[in-house]
Amino acid sequence: MLTLALQTDSRGVTAVLADRPKGGSVRLAGYATVERAPSAEKLAEALRAALPKLRGGKAQLAVALGPEDVRVKRLAVPPAPETELPPIVALQAARDAAADVESIVADFSPPQAGQEGAPTVLAAWASEEALAFWREVAEDLGGRLAVATPRPLAIAPSTGEGEPVIFLARAGDSIDFVSFAANQPVLVRSAHVGEADAQRELRRTLLALSADGVEAPKVLPLHDDLIPGEDIALSMWPETSAADLIDATAYDKCLAATGLAILTARGDKPTINLADPRRPPVAETGRRRQVLLGAAAASVIAAAAWLAYDRVAQLDRQISEKQKEIAAAEADVEAFEPYQSKVAEIEEWRQSDVNWLDELDRLSQKLRPAPLDAKDFPVASDIRATQLIATAMLGGNEPGGRIDLTAVARSSSSSELEARLRDGNHPVEPISTTETPAKDEYRYKYTALLRVPPDTGVVADEEPADESVNEDVEGAGEVESSAGDTDGQETGAAPVESVEGSLDEEPVAKPDEAAPSEQTNEPTEDAPAEVASDSEEASS
């Protein structure tokens, strides 16, 4: 039977056709890339034109969905049997997507055995409208939609055989990451990087895994150019799938579609499959038995009147049984009510979940947008942070958190600092300015309150990586802990991070002069916006 696997990325739709004769091994029969058509019918026509073998038979369809069609996020769930998790996960996914639960389709990887703390699942969901589009494509090709999964899951040739591993591969101008621990996926993400290498995004992925308590995984790039200096073979699919690859390198640019075609052709399914998601077990209603009993009773009544009494007795017994079933169902509904409060608590916690790493990275770039050794460094408008207090808002009316910032500058105008910090997601409350009597050129002290939004969990819409950014963060400024100001914290706020620092380093005043090496801790290009500090450590 033919298997057609598709992957969506910045290039359009890439298709890989696989065939597996009875008793034979998987054989790749061709691949092609077409533009994503506005309708399912036109896309099916384009695929038939690009792959002539599709015209002669039916093919089951498998789709590796890009981040524009599917969202993946780790969700906390109450301790419950796995069979009861599908509606709970679907409800949380609908709340996260701000959509009706009937308008999305969600699936998940079960919680890991022996997981510490509150159980979590790796969940993925897509709109019913998006999945309906791919079902129509499958019907136009004469088949059915067998698999729909996040694109990074399709690149994994194995689950690591128990040891933590992370696979990464290119998909258009993005990099896909998928990590496994104890044979279960623990992280799935896509990052837009353009033509840059994947080292920066790999470090961010490893930091996210470390924050989730996953030990350092073995890194397995599926392309040679992803991690410079690493001598890693191309795709591991030929070794693990027993597929008859005509030319493995020909499919190197569409590993997600290739891996999904091989997996589906051999009859396997990925851990998360939105085409056939996990559902609660269907309760036996006994409808067939009731119909047969009713027919038998009608026949008996028609045959002899004396059986009427027996039939009435049978109906009474059935009513009693149904009443017991109704009472049991009402008890189940009452037992589920305690979970509502837990869901509300989870939602309240989610509103305070701020990605502090991204927020601090943004703040450092806003405060000092150019490296100190830049020839055109704006000395006159330079701003130096001296204290930062990061606070997550728990139980308040405003989601996210706040950053109380104290900085010093050469200029007495606060408008430039306010313009740097403010955007649509980061409102800035009025800034106060004071002048210190010291003779230091940085004698104007500013204090500002910056609101930060909660983390939405979207990891796919990353900014393109700058090729000029040096990935070494040795020059990133360190901040020194202090007892600084705590004024302005709101009632109900839970402090997340309070950091004070003093920057003794002066920016380069002349383009052609370099600051003395013993006084300058120059930030590298990988951290152009972080401030430099003589401090040895940072405390939270």
Automatic annotation (TrEMBL):
SUPFAM superfamilies listed in its UniProt record: Actin-like ATPase domain
Domain of life: Bacteria
Region (Disordered): 419-439, 455-540
Family matches, as Gene3D superfamilies: 3.30.1490.300, 3.30.420.40
Chain intervals with Acidic residues compositional bias: 460-477, 523-540
Name assigned to this protein: Competence protein A
Organism this protein belongs to: Botrimarina mediterranea
